[in-house]
Write a structure and sequence with these properties.
single chain; mainly alpha; Arc Repressor Mutant, subunit A; 62% helix
Length: 149
Amino acid sequence: MNALEKALPHVVTGLIAKRAELAGKVEHLQAQVRQATVELDHIEASIRIFQPDIDMETLGTRPVPAIHHAFKGETTRIVLETIRTAGRPVGTTTITEAVMKARGLDRNDAAMFRLMSKRVGACLRHWERGHGAIRSIAGPGQVKFWQLA
């Protein structure tokens, strides 16, 4: 075995560690963006109390994504993590609630719940048909349960 073959496992180990570090930073930054968005909403609401006719557009741009916007791969990560940690088949509704909770969305907002349920359903079908990573199990009525393949 030459020196390059001996070095490869160490290189891969180092890259895996660096990837984990950066993934942690990304999650931390996403949480900060969500918190800053909430704080900005509160400030704008306070401004409107004192000056209801103010045009917020004149105060500057707001390049923060909408609250229901997901960062790339965020929904998939939450969906697969929910299925993986459940240890049993999990219903679509339970997965949708987990996604909404993780993203700080109001689970009592019926319109948002329907929207997120559609997005979660599309994600689940994608990972079932496209990748074969999960499989569905028919439940009572039209309910589907999901588990790792």
